[in-house]
Specification:
There is one protein chain. The chain is 13% helix and 49% strand. The protein is built from 1 helix and 7 strands, in the order E-E-E-E-E-H-E-E. It has one helix at 55-66, and strands at residues 3-11, 15-22, 25-33, 40-41, 44-45, 70-76, 79-87. The strands form 2 sheets. The chain has a 5-stranded antiparallel beta sheet with strand order 1-2-3-7-6, with helices on one face. A hairpin with a 2-residue loop joins strand 6 (70-76) and strand 7. The longest helix is centred in the middle third of the chain and has 12 residues, at 55-66.
Length: 93
């Protein structure tokens, strides 16, 4: 069991990014302020640019799940949060 130090960035108080490495997994959490209308249907966030689900969120969800990972997207009080776990092979550190 090996743990690498977390990395965290914040830009202008509107965007923050956090990564944490544990063995064969990368944990990502991204928070971003958003002041426009959120469109959601059956727990799925819809695109603000076209009909249907956002392509970016679909790509993140698909990438995480095809390798046994996980993704969760959440919006509350003007802040959108994406939490993602990516799984991979053994790393040589």
């Amino acid at each position: 069991f090996s743990v690498f130090s977390p990395y965290s960035w914040s830009f202008s108080g509107h965007f923050s990014f956090f990564t944490f490495f544990i063995d064969y997994m990368v944990l990502l959490s991204v928070e971003n302020t958003y002041d426009k209308m959120i469109r959601e249907k059956d727990g799925v966030f819809l695109s603000s640019k076209r009909p249907g689900e956002g392509i970016g969120l679909q790509a993140v969800r698909h990438t995480a799940e095809k390798n046994g990972g996980y993704s969760r997207f959440h919006y509350e009080a003007g802040k959108f949060t994406a939490n993602v776990i990516l799984r991979g092979g053994k790393w040589d550190a």
